[in-house]
Design a protein that fits this description.
The chain is built from eleven helices and two strands; from the N terminus they run H-H-H-H-E-E-H-H-H-H-H-H-H. It has 237 residues and is mainly alpha-helical. The protein has two domains: 4-84, Arc Repressor Mutant, subunit A; 95-232, GntR ligand-binding domain-like (Four Helix Bundle (Hemerythrin (Met), subunit A), Up-down Bundle), CATH 1.20.120. Strand 1 and strand 2 form a beta hairpin. The radius of gyration is 20 Å and the shape is elongated.
């Protein structure tokens, strides 16, 4: 009699490893498993995900190759600090460089939001709604909305089911939110509160499209939002 592990076709086993890599990567990139934390043991992952030890070992190997984790013999596998992980390291300080980042995001996030509209779960949708509710509460208090804004965009990336969208936005850091990165001297005279209000109207349109699971409308809403964000910056000569 074959063991359950041998009974799994090779291609299916590979798919299980890919699914496991995707889930663990998202937990790492979204901070559920923090830098320096030890991953659950091989036995714990087997029990939690219902996969074989071979699948777990393949997934851990892929995580190591991607630079997210490091294994220490006899101690376990640990999440690397962000500075140790491979990825983008961008210095974004001026309106000029922020506009370039927005142009990058227009390609990245219009595709991400289309995928999110197709793949999002009810739980992810609820978290997006909570992020925008927090944004509105902070805006009403004239507090910084940057964290809630960034969280909304990261949740969209997470809803794609593709951890690399999350990784790129994580590496961009606060450059994702233009008004958090431009020096005061460059934005003097502009109304950041008014800009934040306009941005959130655009966020709501994005969320409506995601809720309807309409990828074309979601793509258009994200393009409009990022285009408007770019234009709300001071003109660059």
């Amino acid at each position: 009699m074959q063991t359950p592990e041998r009974a799994i076709p090779k291609r299916r086993q590979h798919n299980l490893a890919t699914d496991l890599v995707t889930d663990l990567s998202q937990r790492i990139l979204m901070g559920s498993i923090a830098p320096g934390d030890k991953l659950p043991s091989e036995s714990e992952i087997v029990r939690e995900y219902g996969v074989s030890r071979t699948v777990v070992r393949e997934a851990i190997s892929k995580l190591q190759a991607s630079g997210l984790v490091e294994t220490h013999q006899g101690k376990g596998t640990f999440v690397l600090a962000r500075s140790q992980q491979s990825g983008l390291h961008l210095k974004v300080e001026t309106a000029f460089s922020v506009r370039h980042i927005i142009e990058l995001r227009m390609g990245l996030e219009t595709q991400a939001v289309a995928l999110a509209a197709q793949r999002r779960t009810q739980d992810q949708l609820a978290k997006m709604r909570m992020a925008l509710d927090d944004y509105q509460d902070l805006l009403a208090k004239e507090d910084s909305c940057v964290e809630a804004d960034r969280r909304f965009h990261l949740l969209i990336a997470e809803a794609t089911g593709n951890p690399y969208f999350v990784e790129i936005l994580q590496n961009l850091g606060n450059a994702v939110i233009p008004r958090s990165r431009i020096a005061y001297s460059e934005r003097a005279g502009s109304s950041l509160t008014h800009h934040a209000y306009l941005a959130n109207l655009e966020h709501e349109a994005i969320l409506v499209a995601i809720r309807r699971q309409d990828p074309d409308a979601a793509r258009a809403a994200m393009w409009t939002h990022l285009s408007n964000s770019r234009e709300r910056l001071a003109p660059v000569e």
